[in-house]
Protein backbone atom coordinates (compact mmCIF):
# COMPACT_ATOMS: atom_id res chain seq x y z
CA UNK A 1 0.00 0.00 0.00
CA UNK A 2 2.97 2.27 0.42
CA UNK A 3 3.31 3.11 -3.29
CA UNK A 4 -0.37 3.95 -3.68
CA UNK A 5 -0.40 6.07 -0.53
CA UNK A 6 2.67 7.96 -1.76
CA UNK A 7 0.85 8.75 -5.01
CA UNK A 8 -2.21 9.88 -3.05
CA UNK A 9 0.02 12.06 -0.90
CA UNK A 10 1.41 13.75 -4.02
CA UNK A 11 -2.11 14.27 -5.37
CA UNK A 12 -3.35 15.69 -2.07
CA UNK A 13 -0.35 17.99 -1.72
CA UNK A 14 -0.92 19.37 -5.21
CA UNK A 15 -4.61 20.03 -4.52
CA UNK A 16 -3.96 21.63 -1.13
CA UNK A 17 -1.19 23.78 -2.57
CA UNK A 18 -3.61 25.06 -5.24
CA UNK A 19 -6.81 25.46 -3.17
CA UNK A 20 -5.42 26.04 0.33
CA UNK A 21 -8.11 26.50 2.99
CA UNK A 22 -10.91 25.67 0.54
CA UNK A 23 -9.98 21.99 0.96
CA UNK A 24 -12.13 20.81 3.85
CA UNK A 25 -11.81 17.02 3.79
CA UNK A 26 -10.01 14.27 1.92
CA UNK A 27 -11.19 10.68 2.30
CA UNK A 28 -10.05 7.65 0.32
CA UNK A 29 -11.86 4.36 -0.07
CA UNK A 30 -12.78 1.66 -2.54
CA UNK A 31 -11.51 -1.82 -3.26
CA UNK A 32 -7.87 -0.87 -2.73
CA UNK A 33 -8.61 0.17 0.84
CA UNK A 34 -10.95 -2.73 1.61
CA UNK A 35 -8.67 -5.41 0.16
CA UNK A 36 -5.36 -3.74 1.03
CA UNK A 37 -4.39 -4.20 -2.62
CA UNK A 38 -2.90 -1.11 -4.22
CA UNK A 39 -3.61 -2.26 -7.77
CA UNK A 40 -7.38 -2.11 -7.17
CA UNK A 41 -9.37 1.06 -7.65
CA UNK A 42 -9.28 3.90 -5.16
CA UNK A 43 -12.03 6.44 -4.74
CA UNK A 44 -10.74 9.86 -3.73
CA UNK A 45 -13.40 12.02 -2.08
CA UNK A 46 -12.46 15.69 -1.98
CA UNK A 47 -14.69 18.06 -0.03
CA UNK A 48 -13.99 21.47 -1.47
CA UNK A 49 -15.63 24.72 -0.41
CA UNK A 50 -17.19 26.93 -3.11
CA UNK A 51 -18.00 24.18 -5.68
CA UNK A 52 -21.77 24.10 -5.14
CA UNK A 53 -22.55 25.90 -8.40
CA UNK A 54 -19.95 24.06 -10.50
CA UNK A 55 -21.26 21.27 -12.74
CA UNK A 56 -20.31 17.67 -12.04
CA UNK A 57 -18.57 17.56 -15.41
CA UNK A 58 -16.40 20.55 -14.48
CA UNK A 59 -15.60 18.95 -11.13
CA UNK A 60 -14.39 15.87 -13.00
CA UNK A 61 -12.19 18.09 -15.12
CA UNK A 62 -10.73 19.69 -11.99
CA UNK A 63 -9.82 16.28 -10.60
CA UNK A 64 -8.39 15.18 -13.97
CA UNK A 65 -6.19 18.28 -14.04
CA UNK A 66 -4.54 17.35 -10.74
CA UNK A 67 -4.32 13.64 -11.57
CA UNK A 68 -2.65 14.35 -14.91
CA UNK A 69 -0.34 16.85 -13.22
CA UNK A 70 1.05 14.21 -10.85
CA UNK A 71 1.30 11.65 -13.67
CA UNK A 72 3.81 13.93 -15.36
CA UNK A 73 5.77 15.11 -12.34
CA UNK A 74 5.64 12.50 -9.59
CA UNK A 75 8.49 10.12 -8.89
CA UNK A 76 6.04 8.07 -6.84
CA UNK A 77 3.88 7.49 -9.94
CA UNK A 78 6.99 6.33 -11.80
CA UNK A 79 7.79 3.89 -8.99
CA UNK A 80 4.21 2.63 -9.02
CA UNK A 81 4.34 2.08 -12.77
CA UNK A 82 7.67 0.26 -12.53
CA UNK A 83 6.26 -2.04 -9.86
CA UNK A 84 2.86 -2.78 -11.40
CA UNK A 85 3.16 -1.84 -15.09
CA UNK A 86 0.06 0.35 -14.97
CA UNK A 87 -1.12 3.71 -13.70
CA UNK A 88 -2.79 3.91 -10.29
CA UNK A 89 -6.59 3.64 -10.56
CA UNK A 90 -7.73 6.71 -8.66
CA UNK A 91 -11.23 8.02 -9.28
CA UNK A 92 -12.10 11.43 -7.90
CA UNK A 93 -15.32 12.83 -6.53
CA UNK A 94 -15.45 16.52 -5.66
CA UNK A 95 -18.33 17.79 -3.54
CA UNK A 96 -19.07 20.75 -1.30
CA UNK A 97 -19.42 20.46 2.48
CA UNK A 98 -23.16 21.05 2.10
CA UNK A 99 -23.47 18.14 -0.36
CA UNK A 100 -22.15 15.72 2.27
CA UNK A 101 -25.67 15.74 3.74
CA UNK A 102 -27.42 14.72 0.50
CA UNK A 103 -27.01 10.99 1.23
CA UNK A 104 -25.42 10.19 -2.12
CA UNK A 105 -24.76 6.43 -1.98
CA UNK A 106 -21.11 6.45 -3.11
CA UNK A 107 -20.34 9.35 -0.77
CA UNK A 108 -22.02 7.57 2.15
CA UNK A 109 -19.99 4.44 1.36
CA UNK A 110 -16.71 6.38 1.40
CA UNK A 111 -17.65 8.25 4.58
CA UNK A 112 -18.47 4.99 6.38
CA UNK A 113 -15.72 2.74 5.01
CA UNK A 114 -12.92 5.05 3.92
CA UNK A 115 -9.82 6.47 5.51
CA UNK A 116 -9.90 10.15 6.33
CA UNK A 117 -6.68 11.87 5.39
CA UNK A 118 -7.69 15.47 6.17
CA UNK A 119 -10.53 17.05 8.11
CA UNK A 120 -10.85 20.80 8.47
CA UNK A 121 -14.62 20.87 9.11
What's the SSE blueprint?
Blueprint: H1 2-19, E1 23-29, H2 31-35, E2 42-48, H3 56-73, H4 75-84, E3 90-95, H5 105-113, E4 115-119
Parallel strand pairs: 2-3
Antiparallel strand pairs: 1-2, 1-4
Helix pairs in contact: 1-3, 1-4
Your description of this structure?
This protein is α+β, with helices and mostly antiparallel strands. The chain contains five helices and four strands, in the order αβαβααβαβ. It has a four-stranded mixed β-sheet with strand order 3-2-1-4, sandwiched between helices. It is globular and about 40 Å long.
Quick recap of the structure?
This protein has helices spanning 2-19, 31-35, 56-73, 75-84, 105-113, and strands at residues 23-29, 42-48, 90-95, 115-119. The protein has 121 residues and is of the alpha+beta class. The longest helix is centred in the first third of the chain and has 18 residues, at 2-19.
Any descriptors?
about 120 residues, alpha+beta, four-stranded mixed β-sheet, 5 helices, 4 strands
